[in-house]
Structure formats: C-alpha cells, structure tokens
Amino acid sequence: MENRKELLKSRISQIQDPVQKRLLQDVLVDVFGQLLDYSEESFYNLEQKIDHERDDPDSHYYIYTGVCKKDGLDSASRSLFEIQRDEQKTPGYLGTLFLACDYLKIHACLSGLFRAEVETDLGNYRTTVSFSYSHTYLQAMEELYLQFMANRRQWHTINCPFLYKMLDITDREGVVPQDAVILKVGIEMGELSDYVMDDMVLVWNVAEEICKPTAEMSVAGNVSYYVHRIPKEDNDAGCLAVPEGEDLFSVIFSEREILVRTENEVHQQIKLLKIEPMYQEKDHTALEFPLQTNLRNLRHADRQALGQPRYLWTKGEVERMLGSYEVFQEFDLIDIRPDVPQELEPISMNPFIRVRSF
Questions:
Q1: pLDDT over 90 (residue 202)
Q2: Would you give the DSSP letter of residue 85?
C-alpha cells in the first residue's frame, strides 16, 4: 500500500501544469475516499449480519416483574399485565399483603402469630393469624416454569424479589366464616406496621391469548398425531403453547408459524402465553419499585461462549456470565466461605425446586 502511494505521488509530481495536477489530486482523493467509505460500510454490514445470526436465541423469552397497587394498573398497557392467580383459596385464607422489608424480617414474620381484627359483611371477628408465602403467586410462577419446560425453551430463573414479599394471611383459630366477604383485616404487627402495603398485585410481561389453529393428522410409524398450525403475528414476542388436557406434546418454532403436535385430540382452540417486549416509555403502570428482569446484555465473548461447552468454570468465567445480567451490575462477586459470622436458613429461590440451597 505504501509503495503504491509513493508511486502515485511520483507520477503527480511529474505533471507540470498546476491545473491538471490539482484536478488529478481531487479525482484520486474522491475515488479512494469513496472506496474507503464503501469498504467501511461493507465491513459494518457484515458485522451486523454476523451479530444478528449469533444473537441471543432466547432474547424474546426474558421476564420483567414488578409490583403496583390494584388501581395503578394500566388497562392499555402492551407490556405489563397482572399475574392471574387461581381463584381457589386455602382454608382460613383472609387476604394477601405486601411486606416491604428485608428477608430476615419476613422470615421472622413467617414463624410468628399475630392478633388481628377482621371486618366482614357478616360482622367483626377477633382472631389469631399467621403468614406464609402467597400460594397462588407461587403456583402461577411454577406453572410458567412448567410451560417453559413443556415447550423446550431455555428457562432463565425469573428475577422476582417481590414474590417472597407477598404473604397470605391465614386465620389460625377458624372463627371467620368461610363464606364471609372480607372487607378489612387489621393486624397488630408492632414495628413492622410501617412496612405493610395493602391492595398490591404483581405484574409481569406475560399475556394470555386464545388462538384458532388449523389442524391436520399425520402419521409417524405406528403412531398418529395431530399437527396444529398457528401463524406468528408478532415476531417481537415470545410464545409458549398451552394445549388443554395434553401432558405430552411437542412444539416447533419457526419464523412464520408455530407447530403444536398432540396425540389425544384435535384442539379447536389453543392458549398461548405471549412474553411481550418491554416498552417502558409507553407503559403507564404505576410501579411502586423499579422493574426487575433476568435480561442479558450479550457481548461478543458471550455469543462465542454460547456455542462452546463449559465443563469447568473459572471465577473469571462466572463473573462474565453473571455480569451479562443487568441485575448483577450492582453487586460484587466474592468467594463463598464456610466461616460466615452467623448461620442463616436459606430461602427457596424457586418454589418448585425442592433443594433448599442458594
């Protein structure tokens, strides 16, 4: 390259006419400048193409969770929706409250009993109550996990610290009639009263949608099954198929459609769980705390690592993987030591994983 540059300079210096010399210089600068711009643009487009092809395959399946008051929900929201809970309540259930304090205080509440006055449409009752993790919210989270597994989609543990702050109130004495409508529950909680927040609900970016697929029968060996075709109308959202009454089914995802294969029957309707993309600037849900997410920001090294098996992780590798999650940006990774100053009972980070360990 340098030799060609010197050759061009020597030939330009042999031109005696200053007008021709200036004209030739301008032509060479314009031509080579455009060639350089074209090369830069071509390399940039190639990088974008490679990054797109090696993008995070689960980019449409990350969950956002938040907490707000019931009257703070945005009915027109396209991103955040109230977590739908099972209507069936456990015996003695009086309601659910949100306790905005740390784990140690919540853990102390779970092992204690409190006096309460319950106001109902049938009258007022004095009783003793206890707290437990919200059964219906835990069940909703467990069902989402099972649908991830049934659809063979990668499960990234949902970052929902609010889940373990939603506590069910249970009547320990059984004095409140089961058919009574609960109007108000006043609990004597002492210094913890400042942390109590009523009428709170959990929200996430998961919506339910009922679709009508086209179905046809297919045969593989001696087994017949039904193939349901569901066109994909939104390529920015992740989808999980939930065919009713099917314990074993398979789902094939493509750019244009979703194929749901079942063995029991043809489904005229199939429920989809849509994991909507987050548009915070367009959402008017009155959140009480910042949204939490398990979203990853993949760098080039992270995309390379997706295709590489890892049988032994160094501390640097662990830091790289954890650092790709936004939530870990505010934390430092330290070695786990057995000589901690106090022994704390671990919390089940996932209620459907029975091993009680961090």
A1: yes
A2: -
pLDDT digits (tens, 9 = 90+) for 134-187: 989 998 988 999 899 889 888 877 778 898 899 999 999 888 888 888 888 999
Taken in order 31, 37, 40, 42, is the CA torsion positive or negative?
negative
Contacts 24+ apart (CB under 8 A), 109-113: 109/167, 109/189, 109/192, 110/167, 113/172
In the chain, the amino acid numbered 249 is: F
Rounded distance, CA 314 to CA 300, Å? 19
Q: What are phi and psi of 14, to 5 degrees?
A: -80, -10
Q: 239: how many CB neighbours lie within 10 A of its CB?
A: 21
- How does 167-203 read in b/e, with b if 16+ C-beta sit within 10 Å? bbbbbeeeebeeeeeeeebebebeebeebeeeebbbb
SS (H, E, C) 184-217: EEEECCHHHHHHEECCEEEEECEEEEEECCEEEE
What strands, in cross-sheet order, belong to the sheet with 166-171? 182-187, 114-120, 123-133, 166-171, 93-99, 196-197
Query: What is the per-residue burial (b if ≥16 Cβ within 10 Å, else e) of 4-35?
Result: eeeeeeeeeeeeeeeeeeeeeeeeeeeeeeee
- Token pair recorded at residue 60: 């449409």
pTM, two decimals, is 0.70
Residue 144, token pair as written in the block: 């989402």
